[in-house]
C-alpha cells in the first residue's frame, strides 16, 4: 500500500496527497499542519543556535576561516530549514485550495 510506505518513510506531502485522494481531507490537513509545526520548530532551533555571534561575523567578515565556515554552515542550515517550511506551507495551501 502506497500510503503505508509514505508513512513509514515520513513523506508527509505524499501521505497527505494520498489521504486526500482517499477522501480523508481532514486527516491530510492535520498531517500537513503537524509537519509544518515540526519544521517551524526546527527552524526556530536553528535560528536560536546561530546566536548573535554568527551575525556579527557575517557583517564584520572575520579573518578566521574556521569561524567563516561555521557561520556559512549555520546559514546554509537555516536556508534549508526555511525551504522546508516554505515547501510544506505550499502543500497546505494547495490542499486548502483544492478543497
TrEMBL record:
Top-level taxon of origin: Eukaryota
Biased composition (Basic and acidic residues): 67-79
Region ranges (Disordered): 57-79
One GO cellular component term: late endosome
GO BP field: endosomal vesicle fusion; protein targeting to vacuole
Protein name: Uncharacterized protein
Source lineage: Eukaryota, Sar, Stramenopiles, Ochrophyta, Bacillariophyta
Amino acid at each position: 500500500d502506497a500510503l503505508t510506505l509514505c508513512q513509514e518513510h515520513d513523506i508527509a506531502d505524499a501521505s497527505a496527497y494520498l489521504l486526500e485522494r482517499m477522501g480523508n481531507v481532514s486527516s491530510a490537513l492535520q498531517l500537513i499542519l503537524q509537519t509544518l509545526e515540526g519544521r517551524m520548530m526546527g527552524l526556530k532551533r536553528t535560528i536560536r543556535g546561530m546566536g548573535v555571534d554568527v551575525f556579527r561575523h557575517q557583517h564584520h567578515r572575520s579573518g578566521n576561516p574556521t569561524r567563516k565556515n561555521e557561520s556559512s554552515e549555520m546559514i546554509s542550515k537555516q536556508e534549508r530549514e526555511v525551504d522546508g517550511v516554505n515547501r510544506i506551507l505550499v502543500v497546505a495551501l494547495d490542499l486548502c485550495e483544492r478543497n
